[in-house]
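can u pls check wat happens w/ zinc ion
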Amino acid sequence: MARRGHGLGARLCTLWVAYLLLLHPAAALYHTASETLHWFAHTARKLPDRMRYTTLTEDPTRAGVPLATLGRRPGTASAPGAPPPPRVIFVFGEHCREIITTEVGLWLARLLVDDDSGVRLWPELHSALERAGEAPASAGAIGAAGAWPDTIDAWASEVLEQLSIQIVPIESVEGRRLVEAGQLCMRKTPVTNVDLNRNWPFAWQRVADPADEQYGGPRPLSEPQSRLVKRLIDESPVAAYLNVHSGEWALYTPWDSKPAYGSGLPPDLPGLVAKLGDVCRCMAGPAGAVSGYLAFGSSMDYAYVNSKTPYPLTVEVYGSNQQGKLKNGAKNKPLGSFPIVYVKPEAIANSSSGSSSSSGSSNTSSKELRQCFEIFNPVDEATYREVVGDWLAAFLIVLRHVAKHVAPGSARQLG
Ligand SMILES: [Zn+2]
């Protein structure tokens, strides 16, 4: 959201950012965009056999979308002529203010490629895995806690060997830099004001007012970030696509645009989703049916319908006040209990009118800025570690599941 004026509000805002980034106890927990991208670039140079790093661009003179590819270097398969490994794509930092998502992406990459990463020792990660019924290999005399780091190490090597894991750590880099400069409420793209997760050509809807929080742009794929991520998805079959957000705790499957479960998804998906729901102890199910709202023109529906990705997921990693968390002992409804709505190819690039309600003002007070940060991002170390531990456990489970169920070279695309 663009701010007007550079008076007291702007100064307070700068003070708040200084407070947040320098004085707040959470300061040491968060990395700036520059630190994050530097880690990816540096680690790719240091460990080229495990990770490559590039920036996707349409025009070399303009900023693009950063992309890390983790896994065996292409052309180094154990057997000559072996088929390419299944591809899994993670997108973090699509909405600018949801900076915790980028932290999770950074820790995921560190867990997978960085042997010195202390995250493999985190008890929060171990207990999240145990909630899903996982156990470390050969706990034996040293006990589960002692055996977890070696088990996680073995799992990381296994998924790097079997998959190509593509991580977009920050999709909206320019917007993220503005968040760091104090615009803590910014969700959409700077200047064009587009919600990048409403800018895709499946079931896109025209929203008249660019101030609307769900404004999807003047047309589908109007934004370079959407076009670049779409190009990445379209390059070759995608086994799993995970679009990562914050604002609540939740794990969603298609549909985004209908209050129902999608047809044709793999028979093992309900079991996987139930397990992930146990990890996060949060809402898990079809987005449009359990979130309470429909999202039109989302990348998850595109990955599901257009790219025929068998495991399309949207993840909401954190919400303040336990938003999205299940009450003690509560369970999610099984996916099979939701009505199913079938894919209709003609729904692509639907341009019917949507709502045009306006929301928000560009004169954001410092209190609102602070609330914006706290609604989407944890501010204490215990919660930060809980978020990272839960979602690294969930993502490791997804990666191992895909490696087991999708054969190399077999697209296993939906029919
Ligand atoms: Zn979001």
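The mean pLDDT is 87.
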